[in-house]
């Protein structure tokens, strides 16, 4: 077979990087190992931070479908996990309640939901900090001294 007939991408494949000592391997990040090492408060904190980022991004882009999905599914799920039943009820009512007059009314409600989540954020961060007092500590990799 002529080498020119083979697409260039298949001739030059990148080799996977070998894990560097002292760093988390890609398989443990994508797998369940890293999630098992996080406590529930840290998971809630990271979930809220990601949720707020998603909401802000969709709000900037005025993506109404994405905002409705995030408000109804993701905010409600996160609020139930965090024990924030009023926030869960508000996000559900915002989408399932009476239709909004126009886009701006819906966006106004989304802005209110984002403000509510921002008010909950310090409590969740305090909960995560109390649950993991050694979060800032440097953990040495096996066989390496701590810095």
C-alpha termini separation:
54 Å
Class based on secondary structure composition and strand pairing: mainly alpha
Assign an overall shape: elongated
Number of strands: 0
CA-based gyration radius: 22 Å
Oligomer: single chain
Encode the helix/strand succession as letters: HHHHHHH
Helical content (DSSP H or I, runs of 4+) = 55-70%
Number of separate helices: 7
- Give the strand content: under 5%
Largest sheet properties: none
| Overall average pLDDT | 77
Indicate the low-confidence ranges by residue numbers.
136-144
What would you say this structure looks like, in words?
This protein is mostly helical and 147 residues long. It has 7 helices and no strands. It has helices at residues 8-11, 26-30, 33-37, 40-60, 64-82, 85-96, 103-131. The protein starts with 7 loop residues before the first helix and ends in a 16-residue tail after the last helix. The model is unreliable at 136-144 (pLDDT under 50).
Layout of strands and helices, then pairs:
Blueprint: H1 8-11, H2 26-30, H3 33-37, H4 40-60, H5 64-82, H6 85-96, H7 103-131
Helix pairs in contact: 4-5, 4-7, 5-6, 5-7, 6-7
In short:
The chain is mostly helical. It contains seven helices and no strands. The radius of gyration is 22 Å and the shape is elongated.
